Amino acid sequence: AVVSTQSTGELDPESESRATKVHEIAEQIGQKLAKAEQLGNEGNVDESVALLSDIESLKSEKRQAEEEYRNNLPQPQLQQQKLRVCEVCAAYLCLYDNDRRLADHFGGKLHMGFIQIREKRNILQQVDDKSLEQEGTMDRETFTTNKI
Length: 148
Hints:
Number of helices: 6
Helix content: over 70%
Low-confidence stretches: 1-8
Strand order of the largest sheet: 1-2-3
Shape: extended
Order of helices and strands: EHHHEEHHH
Radius of gyration: 22 Å
Mean pLDDT: 78
Number of strands: 3
Strand content: 5-15%
């Protein structure tokens, strides 16, 4: 999911939903391209080829959604670059970026790094929650001597 950053030339809700649909399809394409590349590098060629066929159908769906979006925009808004913020890593993404660029973003070090940081944070939070539960069942001296 991505957040719009354009405050000038507000879009009507219908146009905004079309723009969001285009971006969501582009995001799916980028993620699947990155996954297909990873599978290909690991030697899972059949799975990679299957993903590439899914990507082709998503590309045609994206082209239709983009055409529908562009056909329903007033001329001045059509010329503005539509930027979105990636909710994972806060990078700006253009609504009309090509699929390869989006795949590079979603498979990139910064984007993947933020995903890993959030996963590690969740694991550490679970460990912290468990230690707090254990702390509640022991007296303070027992807990501190067991930790050291």
